[in-house]
Design a protein that fits this description.
Blueprint lengths: L12 E6 L7 H6 L4 E7 L14 E7 L7 E9 L2 H5 L6 E2 L3 E2 L6 E2 L10 E10 L11 E4 L13 E2 L19 E9 L3 E11 L1 E6 L2 E2 L16 E7 L8 E10 L1 H4 L5 H4 L2 E2 L12 E10 L4 E5 L5 E3 L4 E5 L3 E5 L18 E2 L1 E2 L7 E6 L2 E6 L8 E3 L5 E8 L2 E6 L2 E18 L6 E7 L1 E2 L5 E2 L9 E5 L7 E3 L6 E9 L10 E8 L5 E5 L2 H17 E2 L1 E2 L12 H14 L3 H13 L31 H13 L2 H20 L26 H22 L3 H22 L11 H9 L5 H17 L8 H13 L3 H8 L7 H6 L25 H4 L11 H9 L2 E3 L6 E4 L17 E8 L2 E10 L2 E8 L4 E6 L7 E3 L2 E2 L8 E7 L2 E6 L2 E8 L3
Helix pairs in contact: 6-8, 6-18, 7-8, 8-9, 8-10, 9-10, 10-11, 10-12, 12-13, 12-14, 14-15
Bound molecules: beta-D-glucopyranose.
Length: 974
């Protein structure tokens, strides 16, 4: 394998030792594990139920711990039945043997796929010796409904003549409705699939059983443009030759319930903060029965369905909470034979009257119709479902005042509780939630603002006890308060159910500083809590919106902590859909109510998410499909963005003036920030244009970037090499946007470091500056300072939060301080905005993975991996022992990468794993290869299996390796 050149003009090789990669002999190969393809996925999902693209993309991961394991060719076959597939009859697609290493982003290229098709597929691969693996176990995907003509069901709802809610002082919290339909099946069923959606949220039932375990279906979209549908396989639930029933519980959700800060500020219809899309939830379902005799039948929502509002779920609101009266449970309501005579007839959703209202928002007011508007498009849900991923038993229970029981679940999280309780019928338990306690041990709820976050359960009085958990709400909390109980409840009465979009964890980071290991976990928890259907700012108060500034700051960490490919595939559609007519991406997405004045519904850095997000997904997963899908939208954005610059090509302050949001007393001019983000956009657009074969566009972005850079130098750089704006953030942003010529970088970093040192080694940066502060210090010779800031415990720092009890990342550096408690210096911050679960400042974890642990991608998609750990100098921090070991792993799209290093007594030990089918470039902290061993063998002597080349450069040794695990020991100069 050839050694690649990395900036060789800068790095003068001191010595170079070429070592031929050793090959395994045939005999030893037989002893090692063989290469196999596993983790087969379609469009990033395992066995998806409704794919609505005709060219879905496949991926797999190769398992083999053998050094040098690599794929040289692959073959996919896909068939319409498992039997056909097993017989090798690939009637959908046989790719034949394709030479290449590709294992993901492989688009289907078989015969045209049709709606509803069941597709079975498998893959085999050829290894580096040309030997074929066995065929992988078969897996499947199912096609969704590709055309609107595939829908024969129509939207149904209940008769709703109510007036539009207009009393801001009174919550309107309607009950969830139950719908049901009984029908007969007279034949043998081969397959039963139900496609369902709601304007609101639905839970589906079939013959008395809940279908699936996902929450908040069908998902949040701009219902006026598009509604998601889900598809459920109910073959095992329907009864052949007999009576059957379907049921659904439908609640307000994002469609009709309270959303965001609308109630607080008086946005939405009649300033009510609710019914942002419409006032009457509706439901649609289509059960498609395929019989063994080849015939089909369909059961659809229509006015023959029955509906009632007299079920147990009396209130169901995402922000306000759920109220459940177990005495009103409806028994076997979703089973056949249930007597629904007392239920109403459902009505066609479009038969309800038009409901005109005045809609208030930042841009002004407009008249809207809150009656039914048919979503013009039905889209198969393409994200991971929201579900319970973990249960948290209560750690303790206290009684701060008589009859008030406070449970501590030990962890701030998003979700609900499961209540397990005994009592008499009619006893009503109020369940409140909070992130923090006041000094007297009672709940601190001021920071929830208008989110009531209260659930209520009324017992039916079952002597065997009762178990309940809400379905249509969630809260951000650690503490739970129960009141209204006749007798003190046991600790087992409350269990936390952790809810989030099911994004499989991919990253772990631990280090010798336990406070920062805890912080790493806090960032993961905060990510869970805020990746609930969309990337939200916070899970607790009346906000929970997809704030774009937060996403752009954090996405670099998000992609390392979890597999968020499907999650962002879904959210990018939401973002696209909310793009402003003039080109900007807005403050948050989805965007049900405008924040900011007309044509100011965006902010610098916030709006740039529309470029930063696809770029990051592409970099991480090699997903050029996302770039292609959003290219027109991104182009429109860039046209608008460039048109807003000064004649010299510099940024301006046009939108909402958030700037370096939540900085500590050191704001950075908005036009400067805008310029830096524009430069980032231009660079990313140039790279993305090249990646998808648009060289002319790439060139024009480069021309714009060069123009901007020249103007930046003229306006913002001093002859001595400094930046005229001396804030920490200004210098960080200029460096990270590559606006500082190489020869001046040292001066800028010197000034940045000076600012930090003069501030007693403390940051002043907000959301924007913090993200790149440590990366820029490390990249430009001040790595020890970066590590010192990372490990700081003084205010403001990540460590300060942890030593003050944080289990998630706080919104503000001063969300809590020992001097001012929750209230900040102004005394009022808590009731305004003070979340204890906001991910933006957690963006530092990208640096922890990429720089401190040293796991990075060389190019796009982690096909070539860099491991370059950066231990700080042992004596570089008078305030703490600098980090002296790190253990990190990241499961990239090609498999698991690990980097675990220890530095002690002039020895540096590094354990690395490079996944099969990738290669690694490992940097070790000595310029003397003879001071390094791998597996006990000296690197200088060569002939180590898997090591292809070794070269020494400045103060490092660079080792090129094939896939496999390696154990390096480096003797450092004393
Ligand atoms: C959110 C932020 C967001 C900001 C815009 C806040 O209320 O919680 O995280 O980016 O508004 O300034």
């Amino acid at each position: 394998m050839a050694t690649r050149s990395i900036g060789q003009s800068l790095l003068k090789p001191l010595c170079f030792i070429a070592i031929a990669a050793l090959s395994l002999t045939a005999e030893s190969r037989a002893m090692t594990d063989k290469i196999e393809a596993s983790a087969l996925r379609v469009e990033y999902l395992e066995q998806p139920d409704n794919i609505d693209t005709r060219t879905p993309r496949f991926s797999w991961v190769l398992t083999s711990t053998r050094r040098g394991a690599a794929q040289t060719a692959w073959q996919i076959r896909a068939a319409t039945s498992p039997e056909r597939l097993a017989a090798g009859d690939a009637d959908l697609w046989d790719s034949d043997k394709v030479i290449g290493q590709q294992t993901n982003q492989i688009a289907y290229a078989g015969r045209t796929l049709a709606s509803r098709e069941d597709c079975f597929w498998q893959v085999r691969v050829w290894d580096e010796f040309g030997e074929a693996s066995t065929w992988s176990p078969p897996t499947r995907w199912r096609m969704g409904l590709l055309s609107s003509a595939d829908w024969s069901a129509d939207w149904i709802t209940f008769r709703d003549d109510s007036s539009v809610h207009s009393d801001r002082n009174k919550l309107l919290l309607p009950p969830a409705r139950h719908y049901r339909k009984q029908f007969a099946i007279s034949k043998e069923v081969r397959r039963a699939i139900i496609h369902a959606s709601a304007l609101g949220l639905y839970d589906l039932y079939c013959n008395g059983q809940r279908v699936g375990d996902a929450y908040f279906q069908p998902g949040w979209s701009d219902y006026h443009q598009r509604a998601y549908y889900r598809s459920h396989d109910v073959t095992a639930l329907v009864r052949a030759h007999g009576e059957n029933a379907l049921g659904a519980v439908v609640a307000d959700g994002w469609y009709a319930g309270y959303v965001g800060f609308g109630l607080l500020v008086g946005y939405g219809p009649e300033k009510s903060g609710r019914s942002l899309y419409g006032k009457t939830p509706a439901f649609i379902a289509q059960l498609e029965l395929d019989y063994t005799d080849g015939t089909h039948e369909t059961v659809v929502t229509d006015p023959t369905w029955r509906v009632t509002d007299r079920g147990p779920t009396r209130e169901a609101d995402l922000l306000m909470g759920e109220t459940y009266d177990a005495r009103a449970e409806l028994g076997n309501w979703s089973e056949p034979g249930y007597n629904d005579n007392a239920w109403d007839h459902a009505v066609a959703a479009d038969s309800n009257p038009i409901a005109k209202a005045m809609f208030y928002e930042g841009t002004g007011q407009r008249e809207v119709n809150l009656g039914f508007v048919r979503p013009p498009k039905m889209k198969a849900y393409n994200g991971p479902p929201v579900c319970v991923t973990q249960e948290l038993p209560a750690q303790s229970v206290s009684e701060p005042t008589p009859g008030v029981f406070v449970y501590d679940l030990g962890q701030n999280f998003a979700g609900v509780i499961r209540l397990k309780i005994k009592g008499s019928a009619g006893e009503q338990i109020r369940i409140r939630h909070a992130e923090m306690l006041k000094p007297d041990g009672t709940l601190m709820t001021e920071n929830l603002r208008k989110a009531r976050a209260t659930d209520t359960y009324t017992l039916r009085g079952d002597p065997a006890g009762e178990t309940w958990s809400p379905r249509f709400t969630y809260h951000g909390f650690r503490y739970v308060e129960l009141t209204g109980l006749a007798t003190p409840p046991p600790i087992e009465a409350v269990t936390g159910l952790v809810l989030h979009s099911d994004t499989p964890p991919t990253g772990n980071f631990e280090c010798s500083d336990p406070v920062m290991s805890r912080f790493a976990r806090n960032a993961q928890w905060t990510q869970h809590s805020n990746f609930v259907e969309i990337p939200t700012d916070c899970p607790q108060r009346d906000e929970r919106l997809g704030w774009t500034g937060d996403v752009q700051a954090y996405i670099g960490t998000a992609v390392l902590n979890a597999d968020v490919a499907a999650f962002f595939t879904k959210w990018m559609d939401d973002l696209n859909e909310s793009q402003r007519s003039f080109g900007a991406y807005p403050d948050y997405a989805p965007y049900p109510m405008a924040h900011g004045a007309a044509r100011k519904t965006f902010g610098s850095a916030w709006t740039d998410v529309g470029i930063i997000c696809p770029w990051t997904i592409w970099q991480t997963y090699g997903d050029t499909g996302m770039l292609q899908r959003h290219w027109d939208s991104m182009t429109r954005f860039m046209e608008w963005r460039w048109a807003g610059t000064t004649p010299e090509g510099l940024g301006t302050q046009l939108g909402n003036p958030w700037g370096d949001w939540l900085n500590i007393g050191e704001p950075t001019p908005l036009d400067f920030i805008d310029t830096c983000y524009l430069a980032l956009d231009l660079r990313m657009m140039e790279e993305m244009a090249r990646a998808i074969g648009r060289p002319l566009e790439a060139q024009s972005y480069l021309v714009c970037l060069n123009k901007l850079k020249a103007a930046f130098r003229k306006k913002y750089l001093t002859p001595e090499g400094g930046v005229t704006i001396s804030t920490q953030t200004a210098q960080v942003l200029a460096l990270s946007a590559d606006l500082i010529p190489a020869e001046q970088a040292e001066a800028v970093v010197g000034a940045l470091a000076g600012n930090i040192e003069q501030n007693n080694f403390r940051m002043k940066t907000g959301f924007l500056g913090t993200k790149s502060l440590l990366p820029m210090l490390s990249a430009h010779g001040r790595h020890d300072l970066a590590v010192r800031l990372f490990q700081s415990r003084q205010f403001p720092s990540w460590g300060y939060e942890v030593v003050n009890g944080a289990t998630t990342v706080w919104e503000r550096w001063d969300s809590y301080t020992t001097e001012h408690g929750f209230n900040g210096v102004n005394g009022k911050q808590n009731a305004r905005m003070n979340s204890f679960s906001h991910y933006a400042f957690g963006a530092v974890m990208e640096w922890a993975y990429r720089t401190l642990a040293g796991i990075d991608s060389d190019g796009v998609g982690f096909r070539r991996i860099i491991i370059r750990p950066r231990p700080p100098a042992p004596d570089s921090n008078p305030a703490a022992t600098p980090v002296n070991w790190v253990k990190a792993d990241y499961t990239c799209i090609n498999g698991k990468i690990t980097s675990a290093w220890t530095r002690e007594n002039n020895r540096f030990v590094l354990d690395v794993t490079i996944p099969a089918n990738t290669t690694g470039t490992i940097y070790l902290p000595t310029a003397t290869p003879a001071a390094i061993t791998e597996g006990g063998l000296s690197l200088a002597e060569g002939k180590i299996l898997g090591i292809a080349a070794v070269s020494a450069e400045r103060n490092e040794t660079r080792v090129e390796v094939t896939a496999g695990s390696y154990h390096f020991v480096v003797s450092l100069d004393p």
